[in-house]
Specification:
The structure holds three protein chains of three kinds.
Chain A: H1 2-22, E1 42-48, H2 55-70, E2 76-82, H3 89-102, E3 108-112, H4 116-121, H5 134-137, E4 144-146, E5 149-154, E6 156-157, E7 160-165, H6 166-172, H7 187-200, E8 203-206, H8 216-227, H9 247-261, E9 279-285, H10 288-294, E10 306-309, E11 319-320, E12 324-328, H11 337-346, H12 349-359, E13 362-363, H13 377-388, E14 389-390, H14 398-410, H15 417-438
Parallel strand pairs in A: 1-2, 1-3, 8-9, 11-14
Antiparallel strand pairs in A: 3-12, 4-5, 5-12, 6-13, 7-9, 7-10
Helix pairs in contact in A: 2-12, 8-9, 14-15
Chain B: H1 16-48, H2 52-58, H3 72-85, H4 88-119, H5 125-137, H6 144-154, H7 162-171, H8 174-185, H9 189-197, H10 202-213, H11 215-231, H12 234-239, H13 253-261, H14 268-300
Chain C: H1 2-25, H2 36-66, H3 86-96, H4 100-130, H5 135-149, H6 152-162, H7 170-177, H8 189-217, H9 221-229, H10 234-245, H11 247-262, H12 266-271, H13 281-291, H14 295-320
Helix pairs in contact in C: 3-4, 3-14, 4-5, 4-8, 4-11, 4-13, 5-8, 8-11, 11-14, 13-14
Classes of the chains: A alpha/beta, B mainly alpha, C mainly alpha.
Chain lengths: 439, 304, 323
Amino acid sequence: MKRFIASIISALLVVITLFGVTSCTGGGGGGGEPTVDAEGNTIVKIMFHVDKSSTEGQAYQKRINAFNAAYKDQKIKAQPIFKARSAGASGYETELQNNQLEGTLADIITFDAPNTAAYASSGLLYDISDLIPKEDQDKFYSLNMYNGRLYGLPIQESSAGFFYNKKIFRAAGIDVSGYTAENPWTLDEFRAVCESLKRYGVTAVDMRIDATKDETAPYLLYPFIYATGGSFVSSDGLTASGYYNSAATAEGFEFIKGLIKDGYTSYAIGATDFFTGKVGMYLSSGWTIPDLDNKYREYFASRDDWGLLPYPKGVEAASATGSWSYAITNNHHTDKTAALELLKWMTSAESSEAITNATGMIPARKDVVKNYAPGSPEYTLMKQLELSGRERPVTIAYPTFSTTFNRVIYSLENGSVKDLLNSATNTLQDAIDKIKNRG
Amino acid sequence: MDKIKDLPNFRPNKKPAKKTVKEVIYYIVGIILSAIFIMPIVYMIATSTKSESAYAAGVGTLNMFLPDFAHLGTALENYKNVLLNYDIWKYALNSFIYAGFVIVLNILINGLAGYVMAKLKFPGKRLLSFMIIFLIVVPVETSIIPLYSIVKIMLGLKQGMSVLGVILPAAISIFNIFLFMQFFQNIPKEYEEAARIDGASTLGVFFKVIMPLSKPILATVAVFCFIGVWNDYLWPSMILPAADDGSWPLLPIQTALISIKSIESITTGEVMASLVITSIPIFVTYVAAQKYIVQGFGTSGLKM
Amino acid sequence: MTKTSIIIFVLFLCAFGGFVAYDLATAKRRKEVYRVKSTATAYLMLLPAIALAFLFILLPILYSLGYAFTDYYLLKPNEINIVFFKNFVQIFEEISEKGMLYNAIKNTATFVIGVVPLQIGLALFLALFVNRPGIGSKIFKVCFFAPVVISLSITAFLWEQILAPGEGGLLNAMLGMVGVPPHDWLRDPKTAMPCIIILSAWQGCGYQMLIFLSGLSNIRKDLYEAASLDGANWWHKFWNVTWVGLRSTIVYILITVFIGACRILTQPMLMTGYMDHTVTLSYYMYNSGYTERFVGESSAVALLMTIFIGGVTLIQRRLFREK
């Protein structure tokens, strides 16, 4: 017994001491030379933000396998790393920063588009403006630009719109067939439909103003501010004062506030109320389509029972876009040829099609033709993206923008828009200055 | 020996008739209170039997606490989907293995430390006692960033080795050292002295005398280690690599559940079914060990 | 990182050695006798714990407290500059301008003041309630502990539906039956913090109930009998026997609940998000450190918070220490 115990303890001690010794690892990844494996293949590492077992992860894996088969002769080999973002952005970013510390940053990473400015300005991303020909760039609905330079290409696109309950609209005698992505309704027409729905006796629209805990509300509502001619930051992304608190921006928030004041929408709409037929319209992104198709058969038997309307148009037409993108990183590999090949492969029309077939999202490229029937929800989203898609504000302090936007929406009902926006502007400007002054 | 049975009954029960009335009131109050406290469990089980529409229809009414009796087929469907499609048992097994290692190491390492702090005299002890309190007090919210760097970069625990990154940080618990210390302080010296006279070493005394006397605190620490490992998701998700094709996944159950929840086609009912399944081991453990937990805290006579 | 850590380790050893030397030097004055063999055994047995605690607890904490004096920005881990007290100046500016940090301090104080007595009172009540023989009380005990072991994501999900605004919320629906108009519990600054306090107390009190139960089991039965013979009523027995007998347990619970309450993070995060009327200190730290990536500033808040909690804990220990 005694010897057994003694041996356990000494084993423990040895193990712990070993950890002290192994701490001599790490360091750079060997200068600017490309990483080469035993068979002479140049290794290109690519880090994805999804779980490998998810359908999206499987789709990426398939495209990587195809790449490796196609580039066998050129001796380039892609190596995927899957780092699921499920535990929250903090996990993914902690991984990124540790990879930077260790010098093991992957050659290509995926990242959420609003982070472009922060990542690019901190030197994480490689400037690919001159590597991707202009005519190729034009094939994308959106690009990850910062200060006029290109830093990333989107994987796939998303857009949002107003899902509506056709049964309610029919019963209330509201005709919205004229409002299409090509010919969107105006803000006044939007209010008129809300009024008819209110008169009919249902809550008119779920504007998701209660979804202020995460990115949902900013993602769905920012187009309304663009629609009234407002903006959030200057074009270089460094000034919020005079933009976020401008009169045109206030008008956009006032419009949303008006919907609350007039009883068209409220914070009290339950998350499932639209799905159980209590609400006329529901602002949401494309991923609500499969839910309506599959999960609520008792309320929405088929697509005859629901449809999708575009964002209403003010002085400008604007609709939500959002995507995760690929970027080549500024890691220790100075030769980006292999990474560029992989980037081109992953953003090719073929990959774009394969990946969106798996995810059900909209392809990032205009030349990937999906046979959506005109008027179908998918068609509306795609057309809207092409005609009026506007990305979220490009600023190095995007996370701060997101929390300030949420706080404005949260307090919109009783607060003064002017005061709320002034305070939001100050907070955002402080954060921008803090990052900027740090250099 | 069940200490609780010997406990005094506070309410003076003199007259039998009055006693019955009191009993009835006691049970009514108890049942109402219990209902308030097991609300989440009832809710979880009820929701796990529902389809998405039935779930949505029940929101905001008392129906959210009632199973969907009309369609019990849905319940079976939910549980079947979860069990067959998402490899839950593999992740659960992982969690059991991690918990096993953590419990053994935790008891050995912290038990030894607690024993030393409680029973031995050595220079530097006052500093260590102070540090125990300090480390319990200090907030750890920001320390996860350097901890990650220590595990990944300094110790280089990657790929398969990152399993150690789950186990080792969980194997040390200042709070458990504190618990052990308090418990051991109350064990009378006579036990040790008798063993010493028989020629046992300090380590021998710890394993042969102290440990057998410490079942309640061992059970307490083991149960809380288990609950801790079983419910942890953020840290493992940060440091464990994703599984390669065909190989055994490394993720523990809660981390896997988070990814399962984010699958878009999954229904609320299925999410709840998976939560019900994963809550069972915790409950069984707790119910089985609760007698010891009370004793564990009790005999240690916690003092700060 | 490795080099820095080794330096910290050496410094730690030196400081530790210093204390050991001090202890040895003052041994005579304190009438302590240290034996070489016992000291060696002690350190040998402490070694695994000290090694792991140094690596996984102390080192991360020292780093994160050290970041308080730097401009660490999460996206630039290779460029960390020492800025001395700049972060602290910024913190005091934000407090004086009544910014988010000011709200965080205010809300955390509200939470601590509310939850500490509520949770302890509730736990004591439940402990007294189940502290009797019989299968019924045993079942109740298991039930009361349930929220402690159920993962917070489920309880938050449930409470969100209970407290939901409008008629869709269960609480509003039930109050509606007796004619109370619906209320937006979490949006109204007057009710948001109380709701979070109640749900936290509900969630956590089962744990303290167990500790109270064990405290109760240490009170000698004959004290109650003696009190009964003296004709004491229920209240006298509670006050003179139970309360006195639980003294050290209460101090322990008071300190641990206080520390836990100061660190409240998940409940406001899951229930309302980052809002003026519910933001807490830990949430502020989480948001500025992870979401906004200002690790330096977040660490500075953590450092101040550590000093504050540590100070209050020491005062509590002094005040309640048994004579």
